[in-house]
Automatic annotation (TrEMBL):
Pfam families (UniProt xref): BPD_transp_1
Name by which UniProt lists this protein: Carbohydrate ABC transporter permease
Cellular compartment(s): Cell membrane
Species, as recorded: Paenibacillus whitsoniae
Keyword Oxidoreductase: no
Family of this protein: Belongs to the binding-protein-dependent transport system permease family.
PROSITE patterns, A to Z: ABC_TM1
Regions that span the bilayer: 12-33, 68-96, 108-129, 135-155, 194-216, 256-275
């Protein structure tokens, strides 16, 4: 069909609107990147730089030379890797269990899971519970309270419900027990779904901030986002203020902060392209049934 004048007008308006939204969205990212690589003397003299004339990696050299930043990266890496593995194992196994129609008390468990998506205890009860468990100042306080989510459990259960019962029955006839069915049949089929939810969990653990502010008092155990928060709020901290590099050169606090933001953002941006195929497939699996 030949597009009408109204169709062409709509297309042009749509392209212009989306372009504006794209520019507004990408501009902060570009500004952070540009400032992080701006030479100290140029940033001090200009104060606002979009197109650096002199590029420098001194801010990156500085943040990686500090024990606090390296330690924070290690903590965030531990949370993202260990926390994601635990969350995926717990969520997938629990979801598969709830999908078994022969499970006694299945409806009661589903109701309890649903209630967790509607009602939450609140900050103070959560803090008291973590304190009673002796997890204050422990990295496990950033993993155990958020190991799984009722919403994720229900979504993954929808995926397991879409797997034909005939596959499980055939495996049982061939001599597989419940664990064998789970490891040999279910897990290989659920890789796309687990990758999709694993990305959600990894981003959540990598960006852990609020729970760290509540439960972690030892700055040696701060995750990366907590360290960035302190750098931004208190510019007089070791990584927040200007830093002498053994000469007359002073590193502005802004370039150091922007370099830290880039380092905190890049790992997740690099992981997503490799998981995009599984992510798109896993996000749709179980959402539509024949």
């Amino acid at each position: 069909m030949k597009p009408t004048k109204a169709d062409r007008t709509f297309t042009v308006a749509n392209v212009i609107l989306l372009s504006i939204i794209g520019i507004v969205t990408l501009f902060p990212l570009y500004y952070v990147f540009a400032v992080s690589f701006t030479a100290a003397d140029e940033y001090i003299s200009k104060g606002f730089v979009l197109f650096p004339q002199h590029w420098s990696i001194m801010s990156y050299r500085y943040i990686f030379s500090t024990k606090a930043f390296v330690s924070a990266i290690g903590v965030s890496g531990f949370l993202a890797i260990v926390g994601t593995l635990i969350s995926i194992l717990l969520t997938s196994s629990f979801s598969y269990t709830l999908s078994r129609k022969r499970l006694k008390g299945r409806r009661v468990l589903l109701l309890l899971v649903l209630l967790t998506t509607l009602f939450q205890a609140g900050i103070i009860p959560d803090y008291l519970l973590v304190k009673q468990m002796g997890l204050i100042n422990s990295l496990w306080s950033l993993i155990i309270p958020v190991m799984t989510s009722g919403w994720y459990v229900l979504l993954m259960k929808g995926f397991y419900d879409s797997i034909p019962d005939a596959l499980q029955e055939a495996a049982t006839i061939d001599g597989c027990n419940e664990i064998g069915v789970w490891t040999r049949i279910i897990l290989p089929l659920s890789i796309p779904s687990m990758v999709a939810f694993g990305l959600f969990f990894a981003v959540g653990y990598w960006n852990t901030f609020f729970n760290a502010m509540l439960y972690i008092n030892d700055y040696h155990k701060w995750p990366l986002q907590m360290l960035l928060r302190n750098m931004i709020v208190d510019s007089s901290t070791a990584m927040g203020g200007s830093m002498s590099q053994g000469s007359d050169l002073q590193l502005p606090s802004e370039t150091i902060k922007m370099a830290a933001v880039v380092v905190a953002t890049v790992p997740i941006l690099l992981v997503y392209p490799f998981l995009q195929k599984h992510f798109a497939k896993g996000a749709m699996i179980g959402s539509v049934k024949e």
